[in-house]
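Reminder to self: keep the SMILES exactly as supplied, no canonicalising. Ligand is fe (ii) ion.
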Amino acid sequence: MLSKQDMTHYEIFGFILMKNMLDQKEIQVMTSEFETGLTRAENQTERTSFRKQLNWWNMGPDTPYLASILEQDKFLDIANQVLEGEAIGSFSSANSFSGNRTDWHPDTQAKHWKGLKFGVYLQSLNENTGALRVIPGSHKEPLHSDFKKIRLKESFNISEMKTDSGGLDVNEIPAYNTRIELGDVIMFDNHLWHGSYGGSEDRRLVTLGYFKNPKTKEELASAVQAVQQEKQARATFPLLARHPEWTNNKGNNKTRQFWIDRLKYIGYI
Ligand SMILES: [Fe+2]
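Structure tokens returned for the bound complex:
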């Protein structure tokens, strides 16, 4: 669980780095399952763009630990703390990046969406080797929209961004550069602007996605918008899929069933 101080940090800056959240055994299992998924992704998809990114979800029987990780108290309790006790577990994902940069972007464009991502890097990283860079406070307005006025050198998939060869490179944007050691977990708001610079071959990132159960009309509209964003992402990365084993919920996990019902209602499933 997060302390009051950590919660305030997260609320104000839009991210929090949690040191030593995972032990060696957990890292080992995650790495082994990551490699199972990576083989699948390498066989079935191509690395995309300057990011040289492979992206897939680990929600099937060949990655059982990562398929059920959203239900682990360790993550879910924190997600519930931040998302007003109404966290919905949405995906367990993995990325391998072989490019040396990830362009600046937020993870959602839906205005009334409240969600977060846990990022688990399967190697130690610093600002020159691809650790996450963030713009503290950019999960909130006006900074969130102001950032779009910046001319960037390149952008992977945000059409509203002005990009051209004279724009700023990833490392030219003033930012907070995290430093990640194996076992650390970073959590950040889906609206926060983030990027990375200096990674090399096969930089490994596991991510877990949660969002707040949408209730109001505006929240539901944003959730429907997020479904469209997920579909667009799937057109580029076809392995972003909730495996039938996950949606069938054979183990009858009550929490997961609630999530599945809501994901169905909103249109994800
Ligand atoms: Fe991202």
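Points to follow up:
The longest strand covers residues 87-97.
Residues 24-44 form the longest helix (21 residues).
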